[in-house]
Each structure stands twice: as structure tokens, then as C-alpha cells.
């Protein structure tokens, strides 16, 4: 697959999902879609609501400019993201149905998440109720168990990468830093606040990096700020390495939630609570909606 170098319109199409015919192997082009309202703007382009003309299927069409991708040297990263995300099928992972491109742009055909960004919801509420936080954490744990089973590590779990589906269910939307691996990795990636000690220190890491990030996320859901936040990067770095974890008195958070977070934010990656055990933790069992759907 050659995303940025070819000039002819190209495709990768899971036609069973969008156009209804599993056997069909035709190429996507912009003409296959009616373009609707803009849904948002990203670093490399825009996202539009769109309807595939044959099936009437509503999707989100992400339009990325090749020149910007090349300039920022993220072509390889995008290629990996597309390859990984297009093969994942899970209720809490945003579907990537296919892609195509022309001379100037790359188009990603994505599942539409009508309720938008989780990040904005968190900003609006400041912090979530334990029921809401536990429902989201359990959903993400299930999605990550699925990914890890396919040897995919996400490596960049944070509120900005999560969208909300039509039923209020969480969807992991961004696989830009994910990696398909059978080996231990050493790459430095992601946003500092969510990185575990072994990635900050650039030592080997494995799927347990996602347990750490989920612990950071759980804390942020309940307190409204990530646990190792500091004014200076160097202080965040130090706090992560020392696992300088503090639970402020406000907002009031149950000791069961704090216990779960403390079992995920453990420096020794082999000692972090495995995700299947997380699903059995009393805080999750007592608070998470079994359906994974949170309705306010
Ligand atoms: P991104 O380039 O992925 O950061 O997307 C930019 C913005 O478009 C996001 O912040 C969302 O508000 C919106 N957006 C992206 N993908 C979708 C989607 N699949 N469904 C709904 N909105 C989306």
C-alpha cells in the first residue's frame, strides 16, 4: 500500500460494511460519497460527515493533505495506523472501513461517532461520576484485551483519542502510535503525561504500557487532571519515574477506585494488574454498566 507516493486514486475497501456486497471489489473515490457538514479539524486535515451513495451508510471522512503528512514525516505512522485499525473489529474500537487517495489528499473512511470527543465531555463535567468512569475503564480494558490478543499495543490511550458512539459507548479512535509487535519495543512515543516509567526512560516495553495509561486515564476521569501533571516537562518526567501518585481530598473518590488506580500505576510493569483481573476488581464490578453504555 502506497499512501503518499502514488498519484492515481487508490483504494482499500471493506465493501461488506459500506456498500453491502461482500464480493464487490471496486475502488473508492470521492464520487462515492455525498459530503456533509464538517465534524472537526485535526492537525493534518479535516473530518466531514459523509454518506456512501450506494448503501446510504453514514461515515466520517477524514481528509489528510499529503504535503503536510510528508512535511511532518508521519507517512509511515499513518500507514501503520491504517493497517492496524482496518483489521480491528470491536464495539469499543472505531472502525476504519477503508481509504483512498488522489494527487493531493488521503481519505480515511471511518465509523461516525455521533456524540463526539470524550475530551470535551470531560472538560464540560470537570470530572466523571464513579459509575461513568468505571463503565469507560471497563470498556477500554475489553478493547485493549482484544488488541493485545492480536499483538497490537495502543501506546497512546488518552481522552483526546476517544470518541463517543450513538449509544454513549466509548470508541478508541486513534491508532497513530499503535504497534503490531511480537517483540519488546524501545521507541519513545505518545504524550508525556500518559507515558509509563519504562517508556519515559526508553527501556524495553510491552503491552503492559497500556495498563499504565489506562490507570492514568482512570485517575483523570475521577479527578479531572492526570496524576503526574506538572508545569515543567522535567517535573512530569520525574513524577512518572518516581510514581509520585497522590490522591487529593477533593473530589471525593472511593477507596476502591484508588485501590484500582494504585494497582495499575506500578513501576514494575510485570506487577501491574492484568486487564482481565481489572474486570473482576470490586470497583469495576460494582460500578461499571455491563453493557458498556453510559447514559447520563
Ligand atoms: P482528528 O483529525 O482525528 O483529530 O479529528 C478532528 C476532529 O474531528 C475530532 O476532534 C472530532 O471532533 C472529529 N472527528 C474525527 N473523527 C470523527 C468520527 N469518526 N466521528 C465523529 N467525529 C469525528
Q: Key terms for this structure?
A:
18% strand; globular; Phosphorylase Kinase, domain 1; 10 strands; disordered N terminus; binds adenosine monophosphate; 296 residues; 6-stranded antiparallel sheet; 11 helices; Transferase(Phosphotransferase), domain 1; alpha+beta
What does this structure look like?
The protein is an alpha+beta fold and 296 residues long. It folds into two domains: 10-111, Phosphorylase Kinase, domain 1 (2-Layer Sandwich), CATH 3.30.200; 118-287, Orthogonal Bundle (Transferase(Phosphotransferase), domain 1), CATH 1.10.510.10. The chain is 33% helix and 18% strand. It has eleven helices and ten strands. It has helices spanning 15-18, 66-71, 75-85, 118-125, 130-149, 197-200, 208-223, 233-241, 255-264, 275-278, 282-287, and strands spanning 10-13, 33-41, 45-52, 58-65, 96-101, 105-111, 152-153, 162-164, 170-172, 179-180. The strands form three sheets. The chain has a six-stranded antiparallel β-sheet with strand order 1-5-6-4-3-2. Helix 5 runs antiparallel to helix 7 and helix 7 packs antiparallel against helix 9 (255-264). The longest helix has 20 residues, at 130-149. The protein is globular. The model is unreliable at 1-10 and 19-25 (pLDDT under 50).
Name given to the CATH homologous superfamily of the largest domain: Transferase(Phosphotransferase) domain 1
CATH class of the largest domain: Mainly Alpha
Classify the helix fraction into a percent range: 25-40%
Q: Can you count the beta strands? A: 10
CATH architecture label of the largest domain? Orthogonal Bundle
Query: What's the pLDDT, averaged over the residues?
Result: 87
User: Any idea how many domains?
Assistant: 2
Structural class: alpha+beta
Termini separation comes to: 43 Å
Bulk shape: globular
